[in-house]
Structure formats: structure tokens, C-alpha cells
Amino acid sequence: MSEETIDGTNGCSKVRTGTQNEAALLALMEKTGYNMVQENGQRKFGGPPPGWEGPPPPRGCEVFVGKIPRDMYEDELVPVFERAGKIYEFRLMMEFSGENRGYAFVMYTTKEEAQLAIRILNNYEIRPGKFIGVCVSLDNCRLFIGAIPKEKKKEEILDEMKKVTEGVVDVIVYPSATDKTKNRGFAFVEYESHRAAAMARRKLIPGTFQLWGHTIQVDWADPEKEVDEETMQRVKVLYVRNLMISTTEETIKAEFNKFKPGSVERVKKLRDYAFVHFFNREDAVAAMSVMNGKCIDGASIEVTLAKPVNKENTWRQHLNGQISPNSENLIVFANKEESHPKILGKPPALPARLNGQHSPSPPEIERCTYPFFPGTKLTPISMYSLKSNHFNSAVMHLDYYCNKNNWAPPEYYLYSTTSQDGKVLLVYKIIIPAIANGSQSYFMPDKLCTTLEDAKELAAQFTLLHLECKGQYSSGWSHRSIQQIFYQKPLTCWLKRPTY
């Protein structure tokens, strides 16, 4: 512990010695009954707290705290975070010098307490002019494994991963959209803890590790975003995956209507997944129980409740690049679909639907904003030096993809017509010079839009889809919830405008 630290309680700035600092921490331990131990660059307060029985709190109970003053310690921090609820464990990251590293993790006993901490303590002024940031923290226990032989079954992959790594709980394998007897060339491996996943990643990450004679690709899976239970209780849309590509929306609607005729409002499908909208939640829940595992056109389907998105907050996130919690009464079900998970590098998304038609829907990116202080040093950078997950539109993804393949930029040609009611309708034709002499000279969607932006995005998304179908573009995705990628992308402006 450092010889001198600053005691900033109540805004004071008096020097306190290392002995005084230790005394303050001992007083905190005596007052609360919690133990404190320092190991591996972090100091743990609690975990478990006194009198705790049973397993640790579930996922979603921990928050991340950033921008902590380096000379602030548990005796000041714990009382602040106790305002939100009972602390299970407080982990403060420490330097060798005895100062903290500016961030910590606080685990509460319930998810509700963690959410309350985010609401009341994010941007909290912990000292005069010093504001902390608080957001949800999810221990990632899942790895993405790419370049797996497509003929391997789930059981084979599970057995092999258990042989080469420890703590494997399960593997998630998705069947190919075109051949249900094969996998998609990747899998997600679930471990018993974050530590087990981290140790497995460390062992597999060098790139020289092989499974079945193949050099595999390894990365962290993107954690699924949590949707609060109250919001999920209002969901009346089902997410259906593992459909045959040839299965139509009409067939899906007919199958889901069998248990109660007229209960399905509409169906939106793309490739081998769909969203089934019901008039009533009770019918949706009943249909989920009945239809999960059933066969449609020879394919065994998986059915779950779709995750909703907050219309206002998600659109604000889209504009401001920040994460916003779901609101209570502004839920909208945008018609978004599944994408294929990435191999590595997060290339562009595949289409969702735009009012029943193809619409651009890039992957949801977990974002946050940071204050831009005067005097901050800025470095010029090319967009092409970034990774594809920095882009949030199909147009940017297509441009980025062409550049990465050393192709000339895509060329956009605008056309228009007039609808029967006198509206000007727009569509773009895209030519990619590098492949214009190949099997397809141009790409043009079969739907018209009422705005220039929608028309351009739709054309870019249409092009990306067809490049993938022709094998010239790999849709590889990072393993976040496939459903979520398309179901949680903001389409606020598009929902109000029809295509023709």
C-alpha cells in the first residue's frame, strides 16, 4: 500500500498516510463483517458476504465501475454502492504502487439491485468534478470456435473440446442453412466459468492448435444482451430458427395457426429463420411450447420468445453510440431477422426485412460514449484501418469489404418511378467493377423506397446477400445471439415508410 493517499470524502483533499488508509479499511471490515483479500492485481471485499448461503448470484448481478479516482478506496466506495443494495462482492483493481487502477466490479445479490446501481450511480459525482461510470458487467463464459469441419456433429465437437480444454459445459452448433446434415463451420463452447473460458482461450488462441487436422480460429463470443423479465412478460413474438430455405411464410403461418386458427398476425422470414407475430401473448407462449422441436418441411425447428427493443432508446443509441436500458412502455417489434455468426472480424450483416421486404440491418454493436475534453490528442486515421464492427450501415460495410479485397469502390446508380398514388419511388443499381464481368454484372433489389437513404441501404444489403450466396463474400459473424442481431437493430425511421 502506498505511503500517502488522498482522502477525498465529502470533497476534502487531505493527505492520509498508508497507516491511516489501512486503519480505514480495517474499520470498514469491522463495521460490515466482510473479509478482504488482495490477489492477482485485485482486492476482493466480500464474496461471499457474512452469513451467505447457497451459490453466488446469477449473471446480470454485477456492474462495472470506471473512472474511479486513483486514490479512492473501499472505505469510500463501498458506502456509495451500498445505496443500491446488498453487495455480494466488491473487486477493486490495484496497481503495485498501492493506488487503484481506476475501475472496479461490484456484484450485488440480485439483478434488480444491479440495475438500480446503474440508474442512480452512472455519472455520479463521487468527488467534486469527478464522475464515475457504471454499466452492466457480464462474465463471458463462451468462446467462438471457427474453421470446424462442417461434417462434425455436436457430440463430436463436445467430446473433442472436453479433451483439449477443461470446464466445458456445452457446445452450441447451428446447422447449415442449405444442408441440415452439416454444421456452419463454427461452434460456441460454453464453460463453467469465465476463468475456465479464459484459460481455454489462452491455450487455443495462438493459431497453431488443430482439431481434426484443421487450424481453428478462437475468439470470445459476444455476450447476449439481457432483457428484463418485466419486458419479456409482454412479448408476443416468437423467434423460429433452423427452417428450410424453401419453407415459405405462408407455410409457417399455417403450421403455427394449427393449434389455434387465426392466432398468428403475420410472419417475417429470411433464409432459415423467421419471426412469428401473434395477436395475443398467451397464444404465443402456448405455440412456443407446442411447436418447439416440431418438423416443418422436414426440418426440426427451434422456437423461443423474441427479444424486444426499446424504440426510443435504441434509436438514441443508434445516433449517440451509447447503451440505453429498455424503457417500460416504448417497446416496438421491428421486423428483424437472423444473421450468420462471423468466423472472425465481423464482416457485414445479412438482410433483415423492411416492412416485410429486405432491409439493411447491420449487427448491433455494444457502444458507449466518452467525454471529449479540451486538449485531447487526436490522431488522423483511415476508415479502412478499422475493423468492420465499427460500421453501422450496409453501405459502409460494402465499401469496407470492397477495399479489403483490393476492389474499386462500388458504383451506385439511382433510378426512379412514380407510384399509382403519385409518390416518387427510388431504387439503386450497384455495380462492383472488379466482378462486373462475372456471373452478375450488377445488383438491384426488387423493391422501391420512398427515401434516398433507404434505397441506398437496401441496395447495399441486397448486394451483400447475393455476394454471399455466390461464395464471393463470407458472412462470418461473432457469436452474439443470432436472433438478437436482427431483432435489436433500430429501424425507427423505416418502420413508418412502406416499400413498393
UniProtKB/TrEMBL annotation:
Acetylation in keyword set = no
Q: Name one GO molecular function term.
A: RNA binding
Q: What is its main location?
A: cytoplasm
**Biological process per Gene Ontology, one example term:** spermatogenesis
What's an example GO cellular component term for this entry? Answer: cytoplasm
- What keywords were assigned to this record? Cytoplasm, Differentiation, Meiosis, Oogenesis, Repeat, RNA-binding, Spermatogenesis
| Record localization | Cytoplasm
The record places domain RRM at 61-139, 141-223, 236-308
Which Pfam family is an annotated match for this chain, by its short name? RRM_1
* SUPFAM superfamilies reported in the protein's UniProt record: RNA-binding domain, RBD
**Coiled-coil region list:** none
- By its UniProt entry, which InterPro entries does this protein fall under? HnRNP_R/Q_splicing_fac, Nucleotide-bd_a/b_plait_sf, RBD_domain_sf, RBM46_DSR, RBM46_RRM1, RBM46_RRM2, RBM46_RRM3, RRM_dom
Spell out the subunit comment: Interacts with YTHDC2, MEIOC, MOV10, CNOT6L, DDX4, UPF1 and PABPC1.
**PANTHER family under this entry?**
HETEROGENEOUS NUCLEAR RIBONUCLEOPROTEIN (PTHR21245)
Q: What does this protein do?
A: Essential for male and female fertility, playing a crucial role in regulating germ cell development by ensuring the proper progression of meiosis prophase I. Regulates mitotic-to-meiotic transition in spermatogenesis by forming a complex with MEIOC and YTHDC2 which recognizes and down-regulates mitotic transcripts for a successful meiotic entry. Required for normal synaptonemal complex formation during meiosis, binding meiotic cohesin subunit mRNAs containing GCCUAU/GUUCGA motifs in their 3'UTRs regions and positively regulating their translation.
* Official protein name in the record: Probable RNA-binding protein 46
